Amino acid sequence: MASTHQLRVQELFSIKGYVCVVTGGGTGIGLMATQALAANVTNAGISGPKAPAESSSAEELSRALWQAEDASAWASVFSTNVTSVYFCVLAFLPLLQASFSQKAAGEEPAQRHLPRSASVIVISSMSGLMRNSQGHFSYNAAKGATVHLSKLMSAEFERCDVRVNSIAPGYFPSEMTTGQSDERTQKSELGDDEVQAKGHVPAGRAGSDEEMAQAVLFLTKCAYVNGEVIAVDGGVLNQ
Questions:
Q1: Which of 108, 120, 133, 220 is the most exposed place for a label (fewest CB within 10 A)?
Q2: Which SS3 state, helix, strand or coil, does residue 162 take?
Q3: What is the mean pLDDT of the chain?
Q4: CB 27 within 8 A of CB 46
Q5: Three-state SS for 31?
Q6: What is the predicted pLDDT for the residue at 108?
Q7: Within its chain, how far is the Cα of 168 from the centroid?
């Protein structure tokens, strides 16, 4: 049973001593995750929209979609968002299992009451959970596959005491949503007016670094969560 002292925020979300690796952590949401983890651990490392067709004519729609994305583009998008995620997790799986089986003996007494487990957080997208193609079928289909892959891995890898969850972000400032980033900070800016112009974001603004950090830290630390997809999207999926 936890004491009141052990329910302090500093204890609940402490990841002191964790070893964290972020792939794609150089910009955007990956950089947000990296900063959240680096600010709270001693060992963190980084490894390196088209307009929708509006016509109701099936012939025009088909022509527009053929011109927008060909088969090679689909293969590339799936390779980036699905295949690479799967094989990257496989590569780290032995280390993920070993990390916590060897660490328990060295834990501080105050931390031993908290169950701990290795955690994989897959960044998917709200686009993988919605029915609107947003004008890019391949990306949304790939992100849908990323979401399902996360669930498959969570069930398969739980026997190794490795949890797999996914964050499905909405509009966050990144090179993908803004087309650029600051050369010095690698940060991007996404103004409220740009988000509001989309007309389907109840929050009326982009997500913040802090809000992404909160989701990352929660899934990193809470060992009772496995196989979940958390949409951090400002309410878009409620529309």
A1: 108
A2: strand
A3: 84
A4: no
A5: helix
A6: 54
A7: 6
SS3 55: coil
Of 186, 145, 187, nearest to 166 by C-alpha is: 145
pLDDT tens for residues 168-218?
Answer: 999 888 766 555 555 565 667 677 888 888 888 999 998 888 899 999 999
Do residues 190 and 29 make contact, with C-beta atoms less than 8 angstroms apart?
no
Q: Please state the φ and ψ torsions of residue 47, each to the nearest 5 degrees.
A: -115, 125
- Torsion of Cα atoms, 112 then 102 then 46 then 29, to 10°: -40
Q: What are phi and psi of 119, to 5 degrees?
A: -135, 135
3-state secondary structure of 20: strand
In sequence order, the β-bridge partners of residue 121 are 165
At what angle are helices 209-221 and 28-38 packed, to 10 degrees? 60
pLDDT tens digits for range 38-49 = 888 755 555 554
Backbone angles phi, psi at 237, to 5 degrees: -75, -10
pLDDT in tens, 129-171: 999 988 889 999 999 999 999 999 999 999 999 999 999 999 8
Instruction: Provide the 10 A C-beta neighbour count for residue 91.
Output: 9
Q: Which amino acid is at 188?
A: S
The token pair that represents 83 in the structure block: 């295949």
Return all residues near 176 (Cβ < 8 A) that are at least 6 apart: 28
* pLDDT, position 49: 46
Q: Judge whether 192 and 171 are in contact, CB under 8 Å.
A: no
For 139, residues 6+ apart whose C-beta sits below 8 A from its C-beta are 77, 81, 125, 127
